[in-house]
Amino acid sequence: MRLLCLLLILTPPALAQSPRSYHIFRGPDTLFTENDTLTCDETWESNNLFLLCRDNSNDREIFRLAIGDRRARFRDYGIEDQADFNADGKPDFTLYTADHSAQHFYLELSSPHGYHRIDLGATINRAWKLHHHSSLNVEAAPDSLEDIRLLRSGHALSLSVTIAHQGKITIPESEFVRQQKR
Fold it and tell me: In b/e form, how buried is each residue of 54-65, taking b as 16+ CB within 10 angstroms?
């Protein structure tokens, strides 16, 4: 017991992870489809456009993002940011698609079983309704989002969102809406 107490006292504070804040979804001007980690290419399947993203180290598919049908070429889409949001040592990504009527944002989180996609628009809408008992559709009203941040403290991840003229909400990872892979 004494040894354990001594180890706890002598553990340098630098080993503890400090809280991190990642400002995400800064707009279509920040989108990319290639960096040191991955390369994304457009691919068509059954008249639908996808952004197929591959790991540059082994050319394996990491994930694909459905963009839409033939009209999709007029959309803004791509990877918005890359960081190790969930502190597992692997890169995670924020994805964005938008056209004249709606925008969609996603988070690709790494895990031991591959990547899983979080629908951040659905997450915000559902949490807003749960906590404020009123509807919100951030996909149709993109200007209502003043600030979106991913917050990490240790291995705990949450989403902080400021809605114009409405307020701020913080959503824990347990309330994130996972999108089913197709």
Answer: beeeeeeebbbb
The dihedral sign for the CA sequence 110, 116, 120, 126:
negative
pTM for the model stands at: 0.81
Distances (CA, A) of 84 to 90, 109, 111, 133, 173: 6, 9, 11, 33, 15
**Left, alpha or beta for 154 (phi > 0: left; psi -120 to 50: alpha)?**
left
Specify the residue for token string 């692997």: 90
The secondary structure of residue 107, as a DSSP letter, is E
Long-range contacts formed by 157-163: CB under 8 A, 24+ apart: 157/85, 157/86, 157/109, 159/120, 159/123, 159/124, 160/21, 161/124, 163/128, 163/136, 163/138
From 139, 131, 110, select the one nearest 175 (Cα to Cα). 131
Q: Which two tokens stand for residue 19?
A: 């809280």
CA distance 136 to 100: 19
Q: pLDDT tens digit string along 74-114?
A: 678 889 899 999 999 999 999 988 876 778 889 999 988 88
**pLDDT per position as a tens digit, 23-80:** 887 767 778 889 999 999 999 988 888 999 999 999 999 999 988 887 766 678 889 8
